[in-house]
Design goal:
This protein folds into 5 domains: about 150 residues, no CATH class; about 70 residues, no CATH class; about 70 residues, no CATH class; about 110 residues, no CATH class; about 90 residues, no CATH class. It is about 55% helix and about 10% strand. β10 and β11 form a beta hairpin. The termini are far apart.
C-alpha cells in the first residue's frame, strides 16, 4: 500500500476544484492510497478502519474474503474512511478516466460525512488516531488479562447496536444556553409519554406551550410553566417527588451497564469498563453510516454522474463510463440497489423542486395530466438537494420522497412469491405497484435496532423491556447475548419481548407446499430470564 503518485494526485486536485465549484464542501486535506483488489477486500472486515482493535472475528472475516477473492477476483472501486483527514483507497490498475469518476464519487462521500447532521458527533475527532489508541489499550489489557479481554469484547459486541445514537446527537445539537432540568426531562420523557400517554398532537402542544413560556418569562419560565401543569395534572408533583426527580429509563444498554453494574464497580473488574467504552464509542461512530446507506451512496452516485459528464478530461471514454456507471447504478427488478435508488431519488427531488412540486398546492392536485404539466419554474432544485443532504437520514429520505410519481416513473413494484405446484418451483410475480406498499418495503429493509428500555428491579435484576414494533428479536441470538449481559451486570437479567403464537394448523401442511392464505400473525408477551447461566422463558 502506498500513496498515489503525483500524476494521479493532480487529477484528484482538479476534481476537488470542480466539485467545490458545483457546491460541495469538504476539508482541503485528504489522503489517497493505491492498493490491490485483495487489499481492499481485507480492509472491509474492519469496517474500513485499518487501525481498529484486533479481534478474532476480524481475522475470520479476512480469511473468508481471501477465499472468496481466489474464487471470484473482482474490482471494488473505492473505499473511503470518515477521518480527519479523509482517507481513501483505490485499485492499482485504474485508468485515469476511471479515477476521475471514482474521485468525484469519493469527494461526494466526504462532503456527505462532513455536512450531514447524523455525522456531527464525528466532525471534531480523528477516529483513525483514536482507534489506534484503543488498539494499544486492548493489546495492553491482553498482556495483563489474557483471554478474558476477548470474552468481554464479545459480550459487549453482542449488544453494541443498543447504543443511544439519537441521544448523543441530541446532546451535541442542544444549544449551550439551554439548560433543561430533571423536572422538565421527567415531565416530557416519562410523565407525558409513559404515564399520561398523550397523543402526538397533544404532546406537541405541550412542547409549544413550554417554548412560549421560555420566550415570555425568561429565567422564571419553568416556574410559570409548572404552575399551569399543577392545575392540569395535580398528581405530577407527587409522582416527580416519589421517583426522586431523576427516574428516566435508559435506552443505551452499554452505557447503562458501564455506569450501573455492581460487578464492574468492583476494583478488580474496573478494567472491563474501558473495553465497554471502546466498543460503545466505535458503535456510535458507525451508527450514522448504517442509517444513511441509501442517502450517502445515492448522493455520491448523483454527483459522480453529474460532474463526470461535464469534465473535459474524459473525452473519448464516454462509452466505457456508461458501461461502468450502468453496473453501479442499475435498478434491479428484485431487491434494492442503494446507489441506484438514492441517485434517482435525488434526481426526482431536483426535478420536483425546480418545478415547484414540493408544495401543498401540487399535492392537492389529483388529475394525473395536471400533475405532469405542473411547472412553476422555481429553479430551486440544487438548494433542495443540498438541504436534504444536510438534514435527512434514510428513513426520512424514503418516507418523504418515494411517492406514486416516482414509482410510476421508474416502473417500480413490490414482488410476491408463490409455489408452482406442477413444477414444484417458486415463482415471483408483481404483487403491487402502489407507492405506499413499495415505500413500506423499503422502510422494512432499513437498519432498525430493537427499541429496548432498561430498568432494574429492587432485587438488583436488570430488566430489559422490548417495545415491540412488529419485528421479533432473532431467537437464536437471545441466549448468548443474555449470557454476556448477565456476566457484565453481575446478576440475573430479564428480557420482556413479543413472540409469534404458532398456529398448529400450519404444521399439518405437507412440507409447506400447500400454503395457507396470508394472514396477520398473532403475538404474545414473554419474559426470558438468564440466571446462573441458565435461560428460561415464561409466557405472560
Amino acid at each position: 500500500m502506498e500513496l498515489i503518485d503525483q500524476h494521479t494526485k493532480k487529477i484528484m486536485e482538479g476534481c476537488k476544484e470542480r466539485a467545490r465549484d458545483a457546491g460541495l464542501r469538504f476539508q482541503d486535506e485528504s489522503l489517497e492510497y493505491i492498493v490491490t483488489n485483495q487489499d481492499l477486500l481485507e480492509l472491509s472486515p474492519k469496517y474500513m478502519i485499518p487501525t481498529l482493535y484486533d479481534y478474532w472475528v476480524h481475522d475470520v472475516e479476512v480469511l473468508r474474503e481471501k477465499g472468496r477473492y481466489e474464487l471470484y477476483p473482482n474490482n471494488p472501486y473505492e473505499t473511503v474512511i470518515n477521518t480527519r483527514p479523509a482517507i481513501s483507497f483505490y485499485n492499482d490498475n485504474n485508468p485515469d478516466w476511471l479515477n476521475v469518476m471514482i474521485f468525484y464519487h469519493v469527494l461526494a462521500h466526504i462532503d456527505f460525512f462532513q455536512n450531514n447532521m447524523c455525522f456531527k458527533h464525528t466532525w471534531d475527532e480523528d477516529f483513525a488516531g483514536q482507534a489506534l489508541s484503543d488498539k494499544s489499550t486492548i493489546a495492553m489489557l491482553r498482556s495483563e488479562r489474557g483471554r478474558w479481554v476477548d470474552y468481554v469484547i464479545e459480550f459487549s459486541r453482542g449488544m453494541d447496536n443498543l447504543v443511544g445514537f439519537h441521544g448523543a446527537l441530541s446532546d451535541i445539537n442542544q444549544p449551550p444556553e439551554i439548560k433543561v432540568s430533571a423536572k422538565i426531562d421527567f415531565y416530557f420523557d416519562v410523565f407525558l409519554q409513559s404515564i399520561r400517554r398523550l397523543s402526538i398532537t397533544e404532546y406537541l402542544k405541550e412542547i409549544d406551550r413550554y417554548n412560549d413560556a421560555v420566550r415570555h418569562f425568561g429565567s422564571i419560565a419553568e416556574t410559570a410553566f409548572f404552575s399551569d401543569v399543577a392545575r392540569k395534572y395535580p398528581e405530577f408533583e407527587a409522582l416527580f417527588a416519589r421517583r426522586g426527580g431523576v427516574h428516566k429509563k435508559s435506552r443505551d444498554l452499554l452505557q447503562f451497564i458501564q455506569e450501573n453494574s455492581p460487578f464492574l464497580g468492583k476494583e478488580e473488574n474496573r478494567w472491563m469498563k474501558s473495553i465497554l467504552q471502546i466498543v460503545r464509542k466505535t458503535s456510535l461512530f458507525f451508527q450514522p453510516q448504517i442509517r444513511t446507506k441509501i442517502l450517502n451512496e445515492g448522493w455520491a452516485s448523483y454527483w459522480h454522474e453529474k460532474l463526470f459528464l461535464k469534465d473535459d478530461r474524459i473525452d473519448g471514454n464516454e462509452v466505457a463510463f456508461a458501461r461502468v456507471n450502468a453496473m453501479v447504478t442499475a435498478l434491479p427488478r428484485i431487491g434494492i440497489n442503494p446507489y441506484a435508488l438514492g441517485m434517482r431519488l435525488f434526481d426526482h427531488i431536483e426535478d420536483m423542486s425546480n418545478k415547484g412540486k414540493i408544495s401543498t398546492e401540487f399535492q392537492r392536485i389529483q388529475n394525473e395530466q395536471k400533475r405532469q404539466q405542473f411547472d412553476k419554474k422555481t429553479g430551486s432544485g440544487m438548494d433542495s438537494v443540498f438541504k436534504i443532504r444536510e438534514d435527512f437520514d434514510d428513513f426520512l429520505f424514503i418516507k418523504s420522497f418515494v411517492d406514486q410519481d416516482f414509482v410510476d416513473q421508474h416502473k417500480l413494484f413490490v414482488t410476491g412469491r408463490r409455489l408452482n405446484t406442477q413444477r414444484m418451483t417458486w415463482e415471483y410475480f408483481i404483487k403491487s405497484r402502489d407507492a405506499g406498499q413499495y415505500r413500506q418495503m423499503l422502510l422494512d429493509s432499513l437498519y432498525h435496532p430493537p427499541f429496548i428500555e432498561i430498568d432494574r428491579t429492587k432485587e438488583g435484576c436488570l430488566y430489559l423491556d422490548h417495545q415491540f414494533e412488529g419485528k421479533p428479536l432473532v431467537n437464536e441470538f437471545i441466549n448468548n447475548t443474555m449470557l454476556g449481559i448477565e456476566y457484565l451486570w453481575g446478576g440475573p437479567v430479564k428480557l420482556e419481548t413479543s413472540e409469534m403464537i404458532e398456529d398448529p394448523q400450519e404444521s399439518l401442511n405437507d412440507g409447506g407446499y400447500n400454503m395457507p392464505p396470508e394472514k396477520e400473525p398473532s403475538w404474545h408477551r414473554v419474559v426470558y430470564t438468564m440466571q446462573d447461566r441458565q435461560l428460561s422463558k415464561t409466557v405472560l
